[in-house]
């Protein structure tokens, strides 16, 4: 008669197989985005579809389901209970997904991304449209399979942010939108005009890379358990415990792209590098949600990387990395330039204030696409119109418009709102950290990042999926997610930078 | 009632799953050797063990066995018959291997290689010895599981060279050894002493890489379906049809290492790039044996890459690649230098004549290790003694001795003889090609490699595993494998280079 401990051991072994398959898939995907020769593309789709199908088969094996049923009756406590609870979540989702749909989505992801990359390069939305239409159809099927009683968009959004919904996103976005629009207007009307042309000088890529590597290494991203590669659309990925990679892209004539992009991805990477090792290869050892993930990347990128305190310490090093290039730019002008607020076309290069408007645009359009209120053929027009409405500007081509992000080609609908939710959470965590650690600016100025990373490990990373996102945040900060800390932060920071009343 | 065609379709689908798993494993392995951060090592072993086990489970599924049983009764002809025959070979092997042994070997391969890499770097055989002992034990188990009536070494050697045996290897090596020893002695006693120091000048790695890439591209290695990365121990690997990668290592002060190493691996790569696409993801679409594989790498590396005709075309380009470095070295001196024959310690850098002595050394020692006649602890001493006996020189440390090759750490016993068998086959193919194409030297001099590659595709590559190695060679060359073409070739080439009687 197997004991509860026997069952837990057997459960962990089975979960490890699923985990190894998804890690192999992560490597196939990383490779596709970084090193794969063009001729590998076709087979890559088939390979990933096979691995996804086997992982799905494995998770839906009746023996595994029985094991979880039994463990739920075992009256477990603490982490063991949480492990079974998280396994049940994953199982439920897998059991509801037809294997053919899993395989079809995997194939379409690979195909869709290939076509998207070419379409983006050649500004050819028409080439991408059929792939997008196919993917929307598949995600609708997915939503129906998972929960045919809830609105499709809510079901999809919940995949990335458990417990959240379109209504919750709207509830957060409504007031946020007004306040941001007010702040952006005040900034626009101020007399301060940072000279951002200093960021568009000649910054050789090798020096950019060396500076970025040195920066994220100092922050705590561990290169013994990670690496940086170049890609078209940067991401962080976990190939295994002890192997968490980040990617970046360099623009020789635009410094912030690789610099803040690398810090951002390193923020994701540090979260993954510090997940609980004792729960590796189980759902309990995974990150809990995309908003919490984004809170980590945004905290390092914005609260630290774009702060005046950070550059008080780091600016001389940056000047030395590009000899002669920034000698005539005082610290205060550089800090103003990297915090310039103005409506722009590219989300990943948007400032902290208007960034949310990019997310709101995507949220509204992807919801309409999923619900059928917007046809794929009308997307470019709708994008441009919405861009004008929210940002006051309009892209001149689809490359800088509806083709700029990889997400939809990859079937990720309901993902974008997590960027804004995560940004709000990042400031809330920062305020809580300041209560515990005191002078955060002093630490950042001195490049003493260890206490900051330790606080994040202690309150966020090491918990994996032990607590639901909201509970995690409440335990870490003392309250539920709120936009107030973010609004306090941007008002204070940009009030000072733009000398607002 | 399923037809024979239905069964073939179902068979191909099932074989594709196994193929995708092994392609994902190939990527995990490639990544481990090229890009993986150190922290990834531990999980990498578990990931690869899981994939190997799933592949094994898949191949031993009774439904697949039944399918093959039925297809064998279907009276198929041609390629369909060959597909079923090759599938049976793979199935039989898989069915005989206990799943736990498969997983244990996969784990030990990864672990053994990690330890070997460190041991080699630090010249620490004692650190590697326990891993080697474990691996020898596992390969003995493997041999017994596959065929407990044949000698273990024969069973292992047959994994790489079907139909071959230790006795056959000895039968080839016996006379070859005497003739090589005679030729090497005559060369040593000649008055000609090529100045090999010209190969040890300063050759910046970037220029080496550019020249090697240009060279193998001209030969026909397709970079749209492949790439080159750096590694410690070069290899070629197939990540999928359309994605065949090669690796190399650069030594700034030793030109031949990367140059001929890259051509060698590209020879392997071109074979894999030209396997029959219509049989991709099946055993019929795979290369047929290691000796045939090596015949391709050796043909490009030696018959072409080290020929005077090749350098008559390529030498000005090489001189231009390293401005000023080789201006004082006439073509004839360069060709003599890259064909210098002298006993050396490192197999992969050995000349065409003494290379076989390196293989004979390993053949004798690995056979003794597998049979238990040699204990692992005594390997360094036995290696050094055998090196003195065969090559007349002895390594000063194990780095240049028994730790130099990756093979044993990876559990590959019985593999080394295929290097020599392949070298013999390469010259036999070259003679047959000359009968068909005429002036091969003229083609090589003019860098007109397309007819040569086409001949190899036609007579070797496109057949995959359609014919057994011996039949393939006989069809291509008109006779069974023989050392005579090789001996004719080296006597003529080195007779001229060293002005022998």
Structure characteristics:
501 residues; 3 strands; Neurolysin, domain 3; globular; homodimer; three-stranded mixed beta sheet; 20 helices; mainly alpha; 2 domains
Question: Helices and strands in order, then pairings?
Answer:
Two copies of one chain form a homodimer.
Chain A: H1 4-34, H2 41-59, H3 62-72, H4 78-96, H5 99-121, H6 125-146, H7 152-160, H8 166-189, H9 205-219, E1 228-230, E2 236-240, E3 243-248, H10 255-273, H11 290-304, H12 308-321, H13 331-338, H14 355-371, H15 379-391, H16 417-437, H17 440-445, H18 450-459, H19 469-477, H20 484-497
Parallel strand pairs in A: 1-3
Antiparallel strand pairs in A: 2-3
Helix pairs in contact in A: 1-2, 1-3, 2-5, 3-4, 5-6, 6-7, 8-14, 8-20, 9-10, 10-11, 11-16, 14-15, 16-20
């Amino acid at each position: 008669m197997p004991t509860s401990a026997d069952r837990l051991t057997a459960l962990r072994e089975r979960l490890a197989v699923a985990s190894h398959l998804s890690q192999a898939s992560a490597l196939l995907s990383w490779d596709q985005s970084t090193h794969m020769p063009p001729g590998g593309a076709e087979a890559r789709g088939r390979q990933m579809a096979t691995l996804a199908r086997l992982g799905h088969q494995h998770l839906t094996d009746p023996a595994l389901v029985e094991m979880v049923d039994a463990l739920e009756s075992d009256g477990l406590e603490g982490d063991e209970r949480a492990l079974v609870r998280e396994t049940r979540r994953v199982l439920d989702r897998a059991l509801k997904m037809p294997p053919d749909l899993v395989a079809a989505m995997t194939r379409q992801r690979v195909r869709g991304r290939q076509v998207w990359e070419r379409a983006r390069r050649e500004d050819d939305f028409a080439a991408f449209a059929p792939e997008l239409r196919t993917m929307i159809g598949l995600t609708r099927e997915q939503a129906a399979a998972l929960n045919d009683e809830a609105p499709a968009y809510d079901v999809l959004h919940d995949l990335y942010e458990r417990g959240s919904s379109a209504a919750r996103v709207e509830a957060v976005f409504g007031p946020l939108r007004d306040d941001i629009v007010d702040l952006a207007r005040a900034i626009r009307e101020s007399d301060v005009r940072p000279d951002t042309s200093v960021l568009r000088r000649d910054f050789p890529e090798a020096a950019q890379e060396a500076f970025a590597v040195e920066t994220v290494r100092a922050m705590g991203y561990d290169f013994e358990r990670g690496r940086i590669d170049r890609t078209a659309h940067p991401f962080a990925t976990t190939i295994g415990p002890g192997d968490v990679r980040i990617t970046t892209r360099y623009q020789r004539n635009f410094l912030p792209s690789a610099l803040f992009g690398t810090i951002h991805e390193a923020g994701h990477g540090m979260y993954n590098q510090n997940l609980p090792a004792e729960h590796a290869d189980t759902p309990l050892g995974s990150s809990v949600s995309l908003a919490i993930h984004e809170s980590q990347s945004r905290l390092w990128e914005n609260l630290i990387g774009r702060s005046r305190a950070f550059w008080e310490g780091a600016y001389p090093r940056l000047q030395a990395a590009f000899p002669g290039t920034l000698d005539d730019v005082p610290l205060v002008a550089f800090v103003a330039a990297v915090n310039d607020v103005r409506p722009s076309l590219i989300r990943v290069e948007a400032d902290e204030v208007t960034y949310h408007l990019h997310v709101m645009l995507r949220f509204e359009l992807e919801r309409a696409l999923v619900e059928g209120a917007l046809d794929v053929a009308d997307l470019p027009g709708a994008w441009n119109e919405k861009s004008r409405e929210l940002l006051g500007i309009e892209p001149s081509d689809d490359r800088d418009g509806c083709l700029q992000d990889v997400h939809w080609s990859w079937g990720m609908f309901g993902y974008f709102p997590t960027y804004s939710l995560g940004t709000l959470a990042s400031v809330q965590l920062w305020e809580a950290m300041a209560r515990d650690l005191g002078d955060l600016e002093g630490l950042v100025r001195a490049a003493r990042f260890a206490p900051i990373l330790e606080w994040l490990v202690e309150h966020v990373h090491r918990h994996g999926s032990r607590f639901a996102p909201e509970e995690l945040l409440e335990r870490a900060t003392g309250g539920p997610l709120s936009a107030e800390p973010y609004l306090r932060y941007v008002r204070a920071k940009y009030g000072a930078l733009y000398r607002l009343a």
